[in-house]
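Nicotinate-nucleotide--dimethylbenzimidazole phosphoribosyltransferase: structure, please.
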Amino acid sequence: MPDAAMAEAARARQGVLTKPPGSLGVLEDAAVMLAGLQRTPQPTLDRVWISVFAGDHGVAAEGVSAFPQAVTGEMVRNFATGGAAICVLARGLGATLEVVQLGTVNDPGELPGVRRVLIAPSTANFCEQPAMTAAQLEAALQAGADSVARAVAAGAQAFVGGEMGIANTTAATALACALLGEAPAMLSGAGTGLDAAGIARKQTVVRRALDRHAGIADPAECLRCLGGFEIAALTGAYIAAAQQELPVIVDGFIATSAALAAVRINPGVRDWLLFSHCSHERGHRRLLDALDARPLLDLGMRLGEGSGAAACVPLLRLACALHNGMATFEQAGVSTA
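Here you go.
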């Protein structure tokens, strides 16, 4: 559990800083939350760890993406050479970035900076059978937990999980629909850039998957049948981060679907999640509402990779700097209200 006494002390400090109470809005709330999560009256966010999990999806065969499946493996290579958005963001933040390849149809082979934890070239097409076997699900969950272990060993103060996998918005949508009991039309969005006809096709595919796996109530089983390797790895990472008391900055729609699965599996995970932004992807707001989450940003982003969470880090750093560096009314000799 977060340290309630430290959070209360941080809230009290906010009340005596040289500003009208509450005038920094969510920046105050963020600093207070981090104080409780880090168990310190002066939270900082200097050391951030980013893990990007990559994996292919069998449901790509249903034509649910605007991009070919080969892009997953090609993007793993792009991560390795530092050309992806998350690479640029990580460099700008001075964050540690690792890429974990869980299985791609277009395997780029050994690459510098890419950790190969190969489960299978792809999940199965969940319109026809469960996406993962029990052993594959366990391997993916463990891959996420192992990334958190490395982050903790490195002294990270926050964990960001990203993902890459053609068709993974379809998997995230199917998983979210199953966990929330929502219709596909309510949560299916454009993903990598589908037109109206493509979105309608995605809705049909998700409906077929939900019908194929109807009646499943256990969240871990929903994840096995409808998720992906990278979504399961994110879920495992979030659960492990909560167990290790490491704050998590959650990214967009796909990451939030994994967060919902993690919270459904272990409700205590929710206390350790900060939500970075509201994605432009349709359905993300519904997921955030289900988690009682108030995202810090709304920038119209829908890239994934952990990019929205990374973009939020400077704001959180400023929240900590304001909390730690502002003078109190007494220190500044300023009259209180």
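Notes: The chain has a mean pLDDT of 95.
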